[in-house]
Each structure stands twice: as structure tokens, then as C-alpha cells.
């Protein structure tokens, strides 16, 4: 039997790092309605939008090497580029199918209608059919949260050297200061070296004092070696075998030294996200970065602080709690900003949590402009700071402080009315206010969370 060997040219699909590509597509997969701010349709979740995003990532995102792109496009001098275009379309279709097979997206089982729609001109399908859409899976949201956490914490590192992505992350107790004498109520985190050194010093002092006392008690000229021999015999009690010739160190309560460290306290956090219409207006998408930060924070808690609790509350005309699994699929709408209702719901959630620390992280770009009245109707006023709305919102802030809940506000805008309102909130609850942007929001949120996770213990 004869074998014929040919040169292996490889498959273009094998050169695509699917995880890197999904990371490049995060803006599309976490879309919040920025592409169509005046509508509520799913225009950003069509296969055509996914096709265009993959095409841009292949050529401009660095997913494919330059030599592979040159081989894919062929020689520009050739008059007919039809084969190159068909090969490129086939590659993108294979990538979409691979994303579906590996669980990054879910699609209808039959994609023939989408192929016919593209071949017929790209508009609505035959008979007025709508474009085929896809859904983002939980696997993709979990992966994007991991990537966001890695990128954010990597940018916070003390040095650019080394292979660790995070900075100073440790669980349990970490040594931070010099040891101190043990006192009742301290955590029994003993420092062995300092404890033994104290015991040796104490025994040496006691032996010297005993010798001096014996010498003082003996009459002049008497033999003082008996006391020394007695002390020697006392110190050599119970010695036998391998311990012969060794002196035992007896540790007493006053010799104990404990290490001062950092204690990782448990924390319950409610992340309040403003999903009012202003979060995608004025030429900037502020909601998608906020969702990315929330996913990163959830990944941080799951991997580094498993004893913590994280809840997500959306506030708009009213407020609602959503599961973390649904966070990546949330979109903004034509809503006002009901900050009071968001704080009230967050306080009720945290009141049920038995944790060392309870806090609210509020991400917003607008001043409060709505209020839920006792009869359930929504009072709205988007013009300036309504005194009635501000008074009721500040009353809820005071209620949070009375419950021992800290409120830290991250502002994505610098409107004068918003700044004055947030400063008033910080004064009432003794919290913090951060002036940030969608690009630096993640660093501020994660640093603030990790800094408050530790406290000095003795």
C-alpha cells in the first residue's frame, strides 16, 4: 500500500482564536440600545449585525494575522475577487456556526431564511419576514465578566512585570504590621518567634532574680552553689532520652504575641444601575460599560470573595431587582430616573442580609426626576431639581444611613445639578462620590470594593 503526502495548508477557521474574537465582540453582545436609541427593537441582535461585527474584528481587531488576511484576500492585481469574497463569507459563516456549537450564542435551528434574505438583497426577508436574531448565552456573559475583571485588575497592578493579573489579592489573614502582646478578645493568630523570645527573656530574668535572692538570703561566706545546683535540678526535670541536655522553654500567658493583619470581612452589596434614557443619549453609550463593570464585580466576588453577596437593582421610572444572569441582556428604555425607589428597594434587600458590611454602589448619569407616590402613580419632572423629589430621595438616603448602609455614588456626568445632589447624598450617608467616565468606571468601582473589604485586626 502506498501513501501520498501533500503539503498541509491548514484551515482558516483554525487560525481564529474564538475567545479572543468573543472578547472583541463584547460591545455587540452587551449592547444596550445605543445603536437605536429611539426604539426598543432587537436590531442590534440580528445575524447581519453579528456578521458585520465579525468582519470588522477579523480585519481591524487583530484576530487574524496579516499574512493570513493577505492569503485570504488573494492578489489585488487579479481582476476577479469573487472567489476571495466567497471564501471570506464562508469563513464568517463557519465562525457563527462554531460560536453556536460552543455555546456562546443561541440561534434558530434553521438558518436557510437568513441566507435567502442576504442573497435577495439584504432587506426584509421574503413575504416581509424579519431578520434572524440570536441570543447571548450565560456562558458568554460569564466569559465576558472574567475578561473584564482580568483587564481591569491588570491595569491596577503595581508593576507591569510578572504574570499575575491582580494586585494584592489574598484570602484569610495577611500580615501587615509588627506583632503585639495578646489581649483578651484578640484573634489567636500567634507569632511563634516573638512568643518564644518573650519566654526566653522572662525565664532568664526569673533565673537571675532567683540567684540574686538566694545570694542575699545566705549568710556571709556560706556556699551559694547549693541554690544554683537546686535551680539547675529544677530546670532539668523530666529530661530523658533525646531531650537530655536540652532546656525546655515554658510559655506562659504573658509571653503570647499575636500578628496584626488584615481581615477579609463579609460584605453584602447592591449594585444600582441607572437605565434611564440618558444613559445612551448625547453621543455616548454609558450603560454598556456599566454592565461590563457589574459582570466583572460579580466575577470578582465569585472567585475571590465567595462569602459575599451581590444583588443588582435597575432604577428607571420605578425599580426592580434582576438576576445576575439577566444583566447582560438588559437594555435601557425611554425612562426617567427614580432614584428614591431604587434606594428603597436596595435597603429592603440589604436588611435581609446578615453581613459585616452592607453597601450600595450607585452608578448614574442623571439627577432624580421621578418619584413613586403612595397611590402607585409616578410623578415625573425632568426640568432641573424638583424640591419635592429631592426631599423624598434624601429622606430615603437618611433611612439607609439609619440602617447602617453605606452609599457610594459613581457619576458618569458632571452636570451641575447632579453634582450638587450627589454631594448632598454623600454628606447625609457619610459615603463617597466619584466623578468618573465610562472608561475609568471599572477601576474606581473595583478599587473601592477591595479597599473596603479589609480592616486591621489584632
Helix-strand layout with pairing:
Layout: H1 18-24, H2 26-29, H3 47-60, H4 66-73, H5 82-101, E1 105-106, H6 112-119, E2 135-136, H7 138-154, E3 173-175, E4 180-181, H8 192-217, H9 225-235, E5 257-258, E6 261-264, E7 267-274, H10 287-304, E8 309-315, E9 319-322, H11 339-351, E10 357-364, E11 370-372, E12 378-380, H12 387-402, E13 406-411, H13 416-429, E14 432-435, H14 441-451, E15 454-457
Parallel strand pairs: 7-8, 7-10, 10-13, 13-14
Antiparallel strand pairs: 1-2, 3-6, 4-5, 6-15, 8-9, 11-12
Helix pairs in contact: 3-5, 7-10, 10-14, 11-12, 12-13
What descriptors fit this protein?
single chain, 458 residues, Rossmann fold, 3 domains, three-stranded antiparallel beta sheet, 15 strands, 41% helix, flat
Characterize the biggest β-sheet: 6 strands, mixed
Number of separate structural domains: 3
Query: What portion of residues is helical?
Result: 40-55%
- What is the second-level CATH architecture of the largest domain? 3-Layer(aba) Sandwich
Give the total of beta strands: 15
Q: The CATH topology of the largest domain, please? A: Rossmann fold
Which stretches are low in confidence, meaning pLDDT under 50 for 5 or more residues running? 37-41, 158-175
Radius of gyration: 34 Å
The tally of helices reads 14
Largest beta sheet: strand ordering = 9-8-7-10-13-14
CATH class category label of the largest domain: Alpha Beta
Instruction: Give the CATH H-level superfamily of the largest domain.
Output: von Willebrand factor, type A domain
The rounded distance between the terminal residues' Cα atoms is: 79 Å
Give the strand content.
Answer: 5-15%
The coarse silhouette is flat
Mean pLDDT: 76
Helix/strand order: HHHHHEHEHEEHHEEEHEEHEEEHEHEHE
